[in-house]
Structures are given as structure tokens and as C-alpha cells.
Amino acid sequence: MPEPEENILTLGIESSCDETAAAVLRGGRVLLSNIISTQIPVHRKYGGVVPEIASRRHIVNVIPVIEEALQQADIELNDIKQIAVTYGPGLVGALLVGISAAKALAFALDVPLIGVNHLEGHIFANFLSHTELVPPFMALVVSGGHTALIHVKDYNHFTLMGQTRDDAAGEAFDKVARVMALPYPGGPEIDRLAAKGDENAIDFPQALREKRNYEFSFSGLKSAVLNYLNEMKMKRVTVNPANVAASFQKAVIEVLTQKALEALSEAKLDKLVLAGGVAANSALEQRLREAAETHGFHFYYPNKVLCTDNAAMIACRGYYQSRIGMFSDLRLNAVPGLSLMDVKA
User: Fold this and answer.
1) What is the pLDDT of residue 1?
2) What is the pTM of this model?
3) Which one of 13, 79, 228, 319 is separated from 119 by 20 to 30 angstroms, measured CA to CA?
């Protein structure tokens, strides 16, 4: 007799960038373990992720991380009924490590394999933080590689409202932090520094602000910050780094908020979900929370540990894919450029 869906154990594996992660999920929302091995200290001295180093570290970490996830969940490997793994987007070498481990385990255990879009996983992290959350809702995905608005119609049907034309918001944070000589990763450093500054000190540009345009562009903003810093240096004017960080951060957050509110209105939805690594930004969270109170919609965002890359969100997304038979075969390969255009419409 098949096991009830609410008791199915899913092993999630994530290795798209510089975190090696594994998690065990019971059903769709009961998280039994969530193990993350970060490489931030390794890459910090280079000012960013070095793909070859990341891949080699994943090879070393992936099996111990999986073993720790099983141990924390207090289960045996044979208890796992399906395996979900990130197959894109991400660094190709890093992705291949997780995929290889997942395929080997799926073959050895004779259980289904589920290839998961990393970006969809970020959205599904919210289901683990808010067990009452159900579609439909609008998702604002803000990460190092992507910025997008997605209408989540149900667990397996999405419509892309718009995405970034160039730099993602998180990428802009990291690049601005780098030119300001802040440590890697730059996003949290900008957030901390901005709390001490005046967000109205410098008028940085906000691109694509016209109505009903749900695309984003942060390349010009990044260049404007760089030009400002160079101009002040040439004029030998002392710059207040906190003011630069606060003004830059405000320009990003205002665009994100405005477009999210307009997308909510157009889709006639009353729930906004924030997802991705930049969801951990305290100023963005506060601005959207204030907007929710003002405009009367419900606002959701993941626990901090589920904002950045993790395998719990991959296991969750994989579970809901499995409910409609969205499995992969053992020919599953890495798709480093997998985009939000590949979601089901």
C-alpha cells in the first residue's frame, strides 16, 4: 500500500553556488533537518565566488552534509522516498556535484529523482516559514542572480510578470559593496552601513519607473554610484560611506516596492511573498511591511536561514512537483542559465 503523501520523506540537495546543503522534509511542510555548509570564509579573500574552488569544496562537503541531514532527521537513508536536487540556474561545476550525488542516490535507492529550478525553490521557502500560506499570490524574487515578479497561481502554475534586463538587485549590492571596499558578501554589509546613513543624501537614479512595466534594471544605478564616488575623489571631497549605502539601497528598494504593489493590483491579489537572498535585507523587509499595512495586503517572507541558498526549499518545491508527476530521469543535467522563463505557464 503506498505511503500517504503527508508522510513521504524527501531529501533535498542544493549546490548551485557556494553553499553545500541537504535537508529532509516530511510531506510538504514539516522540516526534519536543514544542513548548510557555507564557503563564505573561503571566497571572502577573493572578493567573490571562484567557481573552480566552489566546485572542489562541494565535492568534499556533499556526502558529509547529506549524512548530517539524515542524522539530524533521525532517519536512515533507506527511509528516503524521493530526491530533489537543484539543476539550475547556477555555476555549472557546482551544480554538477549536487546532481551527480542525487542521481547516484536515486539509482541506488531506486527512488524518483526530481530536478528543481533554484528560483522556484526560493519562492517555496515561504511555505516552510508560513504553514498557512497557500496560492494564489505575487512573488517578488530578489537574489544575487535574479530579480523578478511572478504570479503564483497554484503550486505548479506560474506566470512571469517581469524580470531584470541586466544586473539583478543582489548583484548590484555586491558590486557597489566591492567598489566601496566592503567585505564579501556585500549585501549584508551595505544593509548594516545604510542603517547609519541618510537615504536622502544622494539622488541616485531609479530606472523603468513607468506604470505597468514590471521589468527591472540596476546596471545604471550601479554605474551612477561608481561615477559619484569617482567624481568625489577627483574633487577631493570626503564621502560619507553610510550616506552612499543608504541612498543606493533606497533607490533599489523604492523600485522593488513600487513594481510589487502595481503587480499585486493588476493581478487582483492580496498576498505578496518575498523570496531570495536579498529577502534578508532589513530595510526591504521593513518597507514592504509598511506598504502592506498601508495598502491592506498580506506580506510573507522566509526565516533568515531560508532566505539564502538552502536545500529545505528545494525539497519543498520537489514535493509539490512530485504530486503531479514532475519527475526527472537519470539523464538530468545542469542548466546553468535556467531562467524564470522556464516556469510552467
Assistant:
1) 35
2) 0.93
3) 79
